[in-house]
Amino acid sequence: MDLPHSPAADRNKDAILAVLRAILPGQGSALEIASGTGQHVACFAAALPGWTWQPTEADARLLPVIAARVAEAGLANVRPAVPLDVMAPQWALESAPLPQRFDAIFCANLLHISPWPTCAALMEGAARHLAPSGVLVTYGPYLEDDVPTAPSNEAFDASLRARDAAWGIRRLEDVRAQAQRAGLVLRGRHAMPANNLLLEFVVAADAASGRQP
């Protein structure tokens, strides 16, 4: 089967995997937001067999693509891909709510190709569904107040805004502020190839202490 293919996902999957190996424990359950063509989840699930992955995607046309890619790889630790609208007030499967807690939530290349309210929705949803010791991992380009913006990111930002005025590379401080409002704190910042960043957000100590078990 000739599956849709993302060259960017192929380029960045190994660099992301290297960081995931360093920051994740040996086993757990992970929720992937905006799984796209399924290349990331197929790579990570194969390399991290102690983890069970739940891919999701808002574009229903990509769900069979993810399923085919997972089947092609023969992966038993990936649940069937399901539709998920990040903007929904409650994240749910077609017939039942998502499991309440995940040890990791992974989201790549979403914030800059969606309207800004998506960031708040992502952070609020992650805060609802992360285990107390869980981590939200985001990957993509960001603007940093104290770091010169690479010319390639400046050009990319301009092209995004030309396509849709609601899109654009987000300021890291703005993303951090949205996370804090949801009860998450930035734990780690990892410089990645092609002027991207991988960020780790975890549940704030005071937020975790007030959670229901």
How would you describe the overall organization of this protein?
- The chain is α/β, with parallel strands linked by helices.
- It has a single domain (7-205), classed as Vaccinia Virus protein VP39 (Rossmann fold), CATH 3.40.50.
- Helix content is 37%, strand content 25%.
- It has helices spanning 7-23, 39-47, 63-73, 117-129, 151-163, 172-181, 205-209, and strands spanning 28-33, 51-57, 82-83, 102-108, 130-140, 142-143, 170-171, 184-192, 196-203.
- Helix 1 packs parallel to helix 2, helix 2 packs parallel to helix 3 and helix 4 crosses helix 6.
- It is globular, with a radius of gyration of 16 Å.
- The relative contact order is 0.14.
- Mean pLDDT is 91; it is low at 209-213.
Name the descriptors.
Rossmann fold; alpha/beta; 213 residues; 7 helices; two-stranded parallel ribbon; globular
